[in-house]
Write a structure and sequence with these properties.
The chain has about 260 residues and is an alpha+beta fold. The chain has three domains: about 1-20 and about 230-259; about 30-45 and about 145-225, Outer membrane lipoprotein wza domain like (Outer membrane lipoprotein wza fold like, Roll), CATH 3.10.560.10; about 55-140, 2-Layer Sandwich (wza like fold), CATH 3.30.1950. It has helices at about 1-20, 65-70, 75-80, 85-95, 120-130, 170-175, 230-259; strands at about 55-60, 95, 100-105, 110, 135-140, 145-150, 155-160, 165, 180-195, 195-200, 215, 220-225. The strands form four sheets. Strands 7-6-12-9-10 form a five-stranded mixed β-sheet, with helices on one face. Strands 2-1-5 form a three-stranded antiparallel β-sheet. A two-stranded antiparallel sheet has the order 3-4. Helix 1 (about 1-20) runs antiparallel to helix 7 (about 230-259). It starts with a helix and ends with a helix.
């Protein structure tokens, strides 16, 4: 009888150990198949402006009074507060691309910017500015570059990007990185395109991601990080350990009583 109890105890312990240690180190790494070989470079895609995009547009001159004539009056105060981090402020003081593809600027008037890149838009506004000013400098940035990151990340939600471009890993960084329960081989990217909604399945452990269209995120992209299949058991493993401990203790007591 004592040997039977000992076998049951040993089997329970080994089972728990095997189940709780099934998460291999390789499952927690990015780019498992990458080496020290030289990699090809990926051209950063040029995002073209669409209806509803919101832009920060400023005309800078040496004379503040002249500058005010060419700019949104509330923009100066907004810059000092939360223009680039507060979405509601962005829409209040930014310039939205209209349904017809135009923005309406003080003095410069109505300019068609749809389907232009940020640089092309900046050049267009700069060219128009030079018709009025010799020292005017046009500054153009995206205010509506936001991505939504959900699932197995530490800080899910809508994230605002303040740069001209954003890689998928920078996006995950804004969300605090993935959790220990994340399946790095199964991340879904949902992208809005002029043709409709596009979905891509991404493997964060495969170096081919570095050369794919999913590597650079676009405004309004959504990332969904799926959980690993063993998440439920991993979350419950502390309780299972307690139950096994209780069972083992009970068996030892029974063994002691029956001796």
């Amino acid at each position: 009888m004592r040997k039977l109890f000992a076998k049951i105890f040993l089997l329970s312990t080994l089972t728990l150990f095997a189940l709780t240690s099934c998460n291999r180190r390789s499952q927690l790494l990015y780019f498992n198949n990458i080496s020290n070989e030289s990699l090809k470079t990926l051209k950063i895609p040029d995002y073209t402006l669409r209806v509803g995009d919101v832009l920060y547009i400023q005309i800078i001159t040496q004379d503040p009074i002249v500058s005010n004539l060419f700019n949104n009056r509330g923009l100066g105060d907004a810059i000092q507060s939360s223009l680039f981090t507060n979405e509601s402020t962005n829409y209040l003081y930014g310039y939205s691309v209209s349904d017809s593809g135009f923005v309406q600027l003080p003095v410069l008037g109505k300019l068609k910017i749809i389907d232009l890149t940020i640089n092309q838009c900046r050049n267009l506004i700069q060219k128009q500015t030079e018709k009025y000013l010799n020292d005017g400098i046009a500054v153009v940035k995206m205010l509506s570059f936001k991505v939504t990151i959900l699932g197995e990340v530490k800080s899910p939600g809508v994230k605002i990007n303040l740069k001209d471009n954003l890689t998928i890993f920078e996006g995950l960084g804004l969300a605090g990185d993935v959790t220990d329960y994340a399946d790095r081989r199964n991340v879904m990217l949902i992208r809005q395109t002029p043709e409709g909604v596009k979905t891509l399945r991404i493997n964060l452990q495969d170096k081919s991601l570095l050369f794919s269209e999913a590597y650079y995120l676009a405004p309004n992209d959504m990332l969904v990080v799926e959980p690993r299949k063993g998440k439920l058991f991993s979350m419950n493993s502390p309780n299972i350990a307690i139950y096994l401990s209780i069972v083992s203790t009970t068996l030892l007591l029974i063994n002691y009583i029956l001796k």
